[in-house]
Give the backbone structure.
Amino acid sequence: MKRKKIFISSVQSEFAKERKALHEYIISDPLLGKFFDVFLFELLPAVDQKADEVYLKEVEHCDIYLGLLGKQYGSENSEGISPTELEFNHAVKNHKTKFLFLTSHPAAERHPKEKKFITKVERELIRKQFSTIDELKSAAYATLIRYLEEKEIIRTVPFDATLNQSSGIKDLDTGKIKQFVRTARSKRGFPLREESKIEDILVHLNLMVKKRITNAAILLFGKQPQRFFINSEIRCAHFHGTIVSKPIPSYKVFKGSVFELTDQALDFVLSKLNYSVGTREKEVQIPGRYEIPKEIIAEAIVNAIAHRDYTSNGSVQVMLFSDRMEIWNPGTLPLGWTTEKLKHLHTSIPANPLLAEPMYLAGYIERLGTGTTDIVRLANEADLKEPDFIQEEIFKAIIYRPVTPHDTPHDTPYDAPYDNELVNRLILALNGEMSRPELQKSVGVKDIGHFREGYLVPALELNIIEMTLPDKPKSKNQRYRLTKKGISLQKQLIK
């Protein structure tokens, strides 16, 4: 196989040590050295050619442009352009694969033209930061390995498709699998039935090979997924202000399958958002809406779960601030993608395809490959500021809350007479006598435990709702209705 050629571009005087160290590291590494050659201008013998002609020809002959950007812009030609920028422009013109590594210096320490150049480069490719030579070597190694994998020069099995060595079908919850089949049949026409053998269902979903289950099977249907993958949990936090500060008003760590994690994280966020109500003029149920559409929150959470790097020690984090929601995901975009591309129609390259497909079949993903574009579209339709997607060491999705001129929640259209948003939603949802499943569906909560703990029990304890069969609390015929106190509160809420 022909070795790939890497062209290292930088201000030579600023990165002399880094260039030499990176060159030596790549060619001497047992794996990288088999696949890559590295070009450094300073290693060329003296030639009777102009320097700019030589390095631009080398850019044309390379497979990968690897740029190092720091504080200095470098010497400038008659047009005021540095050799580094000329090399980058030539790499773009010749459609080369490009990687950028940026020092962690603050912007104030960079040359004005270097700052402008960095802004220009970031439109074309994703950057990674480094502070030391060791950090640079580590980041370059990970990037080049991903390049080899995505070009299929080396092949490894994705994490979700890897057969788990320490588990078996006994570690899966058959009830979860049957529930999935019921849902997938109704939403997507899944061909197998609930009565099908568990093994047949798993094989059909590519989650079992020769009686061995994959990592994806555990994450989707495991009895205790975090026993095998402790960092597959989701951490959710709510802050009253715009920055992370202690004490944290509300903090939860959720565990369970990827479906349960999605439901729990979604319920957590919705329970903290403002909720406006309409009237029953046209509907039996009182219509209402969240300040951020529920579909946006669900898409962002599902994307984080489906596309995260499960080999990372990090967890998905969902943080709600007074002006925005941030979802942090220990993962990276496909090679060569920019965050700007996520805002436009693009192909689907799921990091964990065996997770993404069942989530689509169960209705958690509407269409594969449209999650981020749907988030942007829904935000625009709701008159929210356009979401931001940021790729650094982790991936961040930032969803903005609506801007309001009011200083206190009592001045907003989401005002409520009782200081418990979850109970208020239950009050608004109750119409006549309703069963627990009907009520749960009405408030839009999928997790039974969260519904009982956050909605039903507090409302009963506050004498806002009552059971129709108080002597038989566990009866299948049990219904719930508003008390006189609840009816009064409902009228206030509607006003």
